[in-house]
Amino acid sequence: MRMMHNFFRIGGVAADLPHGWIDKCLDFCDYFLPEVAEYQKLITRNPIFLERVEGVGFIAEEEAINWGLSGPMLRASGIPWDLRKVDHYECYDEFDWEVQWQKEGDSLARYLVRISEMIESVKIIQQALEGIPGGPYENLEARRFDRVRNIEWNDFEYRFISKKPSPTFELSKQELYVRVEAPKGELGIFLIGDNSVFPWRWKIRPPGLINLQILPQLVKRMKLADIMTILGITIGVLVIVWLEREISAGIQQRIGPEYAGPLGILQAIADGTKLLFKEDLLPSRGDIRLFSIGPSVVVISILLSHLVIPFGYRLVLADLSIGVSLWIAISSIAPIGLLMSGYASNNKYSFSGGLRAAAQSISYEIPLTLCVLSISLRAIR
């Protein structure tokens, strides 16, 4: 949903699933479950790992509630609270799955909850794929609009489907809070209406940041090295980078990252080493000044584009009539910075990498620009 928000439509989706996609997804589930056992063999049963996380960062049940923790942080402290079970939303009640929780409340318990949730997530995916409904998917909005107008339709629904004019409605003078279970915890949206088309107050409760507010209490009288254990940064980054390479390689059908070393771990080690050192290394035979200016050009173009991007109703740094065109023009400067750094390195491989990065950036900008211009022309009409 976060990455493919344009796929969903009123009453269905934009296109049918690619041929064979469900089978590939089920194959991945069958592949992933044995891999979790391998992860547990490498990490969970490692005595060095257990010594570093067991009994560290303890959060009692009452503390977890008082600090407003949610998600795996809350469930690791002995509270089996999952909004998918509590609020019974979507179709989760139709699936056979259990809330994963631990009662120890330390860093090891939080790790075990996340490992168990991987297995439960695969079970949910498998059941959802087996029960996915069929039916038409093309032009659902248009076909619904072509029907005889239902007398039960309200004016807002009619305008939303027909797109004429843009739908708006007044928010009544009341408070509303909705919530869902996100991977890191409770994601909530809080609205206060004031009988206008704009909310008087709109607050998003992030699932992850709120869990960090207990950190100052946890690190008291702790060793500096234990802070990383409590945050889960060290292992978390390695596992996430590794899984990202594995999953991306599987989607893009790139064999290398999947088989570079045992379980494809060599690719993750190479990426981790690059992330640690690449920003601090300067080519000895290159143009140092030009090499350093390149990243600045990229960052400056991004910062300048925020001049015309509205952050809220009537909240924009420079309210220009040509704001969209200016934003497109400023954003197109970024590939120049990529080329500058590649050229200034005085290395054909680095220059090829700069060309590739610039080409990829341009490939994103062209369809984005066409979409923005089409919306702008529509607004002018």
From TrEMBL:
One of its GO terms (cellular component) is membrane. Keywords: Membrane, Transmembrane, Transmembrane helix. The keyword Membrane applies. PROSITE patterns: COMPLEX1_ND1_1 (PS00667). Residues 1-232 form the NADH-quinone oxidoreductase subunit D domain. The chain crosses the membrane at residues 224-243, 288-309, 316-341. One of its GO terms (molecular function) is quinone binding. Belongs to the complex I 49 kDa subunit family. This is NADH-quinone oxidoreductase subunit D domain-containing protein. It comes from Amborella trichopoda.
